[in-house]
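Record 1 of the preview.
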Amino acid sequence: MKFSQMVYFREVCKTMNISKASQNLFVSQPAISSSIKTLEDEFGLQLFHRNNNKLFLTAEGEFFYEQVKTILDQTEKLELRMKDLGRTHNTIRLGVPPMIGIFLFPKIFNEFKAKYPKTEIGIHESGSLEIRQFVVDDVVDIAIGILDEDMKPHFNVLPFYETELVFAVNKDHPLARRDKISFETLKDEKIILMKADSFQNPRIKERFAELGIEPNVFLYSSQLYTIKKFVSYGNCGAFVFREIADMDDDMVAVPFDQPIKISIGLIWKHHGILYSEAEHFIDHIKASFPLHP
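->
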């Protein structure tokens, strides 16, 4: 059985007319008729009933048609995918969460582009949890995200940066004068949380729940500009990376008495395809940051 025979057979099944099939495929009618006859002889069965110049699939023909459709559909999808990879292999599709995109990624991007100016980086911004799903679904080749132990069985990970979550408030907020705070301290405070697709959202809520505290969530937002604007009014605070708070002269980073340590790293798929550009990016991270295995 040849690939072309399956293509001819599928088209005949679609049209139930050899003449129409030959027109659609730009192949002569005798070539298609001969191809069908060769298949029937090879299998030792009939694929079509022929009655008054009309074609009808036999039970065996119906079964073969379903299998051929599956094989050809998968082959065509594979061909499109490979052509797409050929066009885009000089591009890295990179997932980056909003906060990391503000303080850490610009330096990485500029230094990498200086070394590899011809490599394009396409950015997909979302929360750390959704970005993990982007990796699984092949939406991105690599992601920069927050790491935890649960990830290791499912992803390749390369930790390269450590930070902590702090409670950021305006410099005139009463908590700005505190050296440290606890979650109990925040039970009556208005707080801003990142959206549910972020790493911090469920974990902060878990910490409050462990203490039997219902947090007073004033706003859910993953937009850093929006968060900073609301914090500037002085009546609420937000959980952010220390570096984010330190970037704003009007914002004070108040640490927790039990520090919330955060590990940031690269994430990519087990057994996924990594092109040389993505491997260059991983090597660049290894060379630029001392914190990796």
